[in-house]
Amino acid sequence: MDKEYAKFFSEKKAYVERVRGLLNDESEVEKFLEFISKPLPLTVRANTLKITPEALVKRFEKKEWTVRQEQFYSHAFTVIDSHETAVGNSSEHFLGYFYVQEIVSMLPALVLKPEKNSFVLDLCAAPGSKTTQLSQLMENSGLIVANDVRIDRMRALVTNSQRCGCMNVLFTRNAGQAFFRKLKEQYFDCVLVDAPCSGESMFRKSWKYLQNWHESEIRNFSELQYSIAVSGLNSLKENGKMIYSTCTLSPEENEAVVQKLLDNFDIKLKKISIKNFKTRQGITEFRDLRFSEEVKNCCRVYPHDNDTGAFFMALIEKK
Predict the structure, then answer these.
(1) pTM of the full predicted structure?
(2) Distance CA 116, CA 135 (A)
(3) Spatial distance between the Cα atoms of 93 and 60, rounded to a whole number of angstroms
(4) Mean pLDDT of the chain
(5) Taking the C-alpha atoms of 76, 82, 86 and 92 in order, what is their torsion angle to the nearest 10 degrees?
(6) Rg (CA), the chain
(7) What is the dihedral of CA 287, 290, 293, 294, to 10 degrees?
(8) Which domain holds residue 171?
(9) Rounded to the nearest 5 degrees, what angle is found at the Cα of 131, between the Cα atoms of 72 and 91?
(10) Residues 82 and 20 occupy one common structural domain
């Protein structure tokens, strides 16, 4: 581990103690901290609305880029070497042939698996990585309502959707927790709630996110996340599916939110498994928190398991 990070972790004891509470194995804690102090691999998703993965690989080869196609998802590639070319400045990126997207960010849409011609709500959609992937999976059919609250993020959402050729997307600007109050109807077959969170995945992007991390912020996020999830669940049709996800590992923002949904709604948690990708089940206790056995059906992704960011998902079925 980098000496700067080692020194920092020795000072950021509250964070390290939380990791210990999740993993309960000192050697694994060390491995976790080692990976979370490393930069994320650069990964992209082939946009099959415009190009096949095979044709994209040929373009990579022509540029003499070294890439690895990921086993869990044939549209996902890790860019090992782009010969000092900024991937985002390539013609293929501007043409919308691929989308620069983290591996864990690709998981919710894959697990949700919306059918063609379905109605889908992406409640916290900006900047559009999951919206464009949903459109790709639906082959530009049906309707995706892509909602976000901040105008600056909305601009990125619209731009990215247009660049990727997504023609089945309707954009709305509302606070996620207020969306259903305006909709007033159980309209959607599928809902994706990728909620704002304390963002442990961001630690691998910049050290400043780890420096600015404070345990006190977690409770505020948890309350906001629950209110947004309720809005998404209320917008969902009976027998519909909803993904609740965060890019953090805090149980207060993950299992605790899901448990509160279980306590207040007639829902079922579906077990999540992703072939050729390591996930771990949800936890049933953390410090003074206790959760039902059903919460084990949730899915946790630790950075050192697949060399990714941190992530959490719950697949919810509305009865």
Answers:
(1) 0.95
(2) 9
(3) 12
(4) 94
(5) -50
(6) 19
(7) -110
(8) 104-318
(9) 80
(10) no
- pLDDT reported for residue 186: 86
Q: What is the pLDDT of residues 12-55, one digit of tens each?
A: 788 899 999 999 899 999 999 999 988 999 999 999 999 999 99
Catalytic residue among 164, 247, 298, 299: 247
**11, 46, 54, 86, 97 from 100: Cα distances, Å:** 34, 9, 17, 11, 10
Active-site residue 247, yes or no? yes
26 and 145 together in one domain: no
| Burial zone of 47 (CB within 10 Å; 0-12 exposed, 13-18 middle, 19+ buried) | buried
Which of 100, 125, 145 finishes a domain? 100
Choose among 88, 111, 90, 114: nearest CA to 101: 88
With 0-12 CB in 10 A as exposed, 13-18 as middle and 19+ as buried, what is 36? buried
Structure tokens at 220: 């505020």
Same domain, 295 and 163: yes
Q: Do 158 and 265 lie in a common domain?
A: yes
Instruction: Please provide the size of the chain in residues.
Output: 319
- CB of 133 within 8 A of CB of 45? yes
CATH number of the domain at 51, please. 3.30.70.1170
Same domain, 115 and 217: yes
**301 and 246 Cβ atoms separated by less than 8 Å:** no
Query: What are residue 241's DSSP bridge partners?
Result: 190, 317
Parallel/antiparallel/unpaired status of strands 143-148 and 119-122: parallel
Question: Number of structural domains, the chain?
Answer: 3
| Per-residue pLDDT tens digits for 67-117 | 999 999 999 999 999 876 789 999 999 999 999 999 999 999 999 999 999
1 has a pLDDT exceeding 70: no
